[in-house]
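Entry 14. Structure prediction run on the chain below.
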Amino acid sequence: MGVPLKTDNKKKNGLIKDHFEWRNEGRKVDEIEEEKERYPRLTGISQEKMEVLVRKALAGTSNKSVPGLDRIWYKLIKRVLDLELGRELIRDMAKNLVNGKIPKEWQHSKIVMIPKLGKDHNKTKGWRPKNLINCISKLGEKVVADRLQESSLLYRHQFGLVKGRLATEAALRVVTRAQRCMAAEGAVGWNFWDVKGGF
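Output returned:
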């Protein structure tokens, strides 16, 4: 059982249209259509294909990841994978993902406070919150995140949380652009922001 996700189709279509408009500037219609065919869609996936994606996502998880309230570790899920219990778990996860439902059990988490070394523990800055999420929920999130990255829906200049794109690559691009601008006797300005206490 899960909670059906409600989507405003008008808003969704507007977002998709806006997304493709910035990507399509100066490109031929044939190129755009070819790209849409090449990248997988987020919807319309079969139960069997989703089960394969869930297994693939599970294989990429760390056995050291801390579980949530259910106390089920990835290591345990991997051990029962070849048993009927494991197969049923994968089928159930795939079914929920295909139907776009998030079971209530996936929404449970617990925040624990971890003391920071060398900090005053009488102040809130002396503690780091850690959100403990059930591994099954994290696995579902991982499948969705992997599909989003394969779909080309993310902004092409986004580097955070995108596989194969490093912060050093973003810095290299900015420096290269600045060097080209300075070589053409142009001016370059830099702005840097740091969110204090962000993590």
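DSSP finds seven helices and four strands in the chain.
Filed with the rest of this week's runs.
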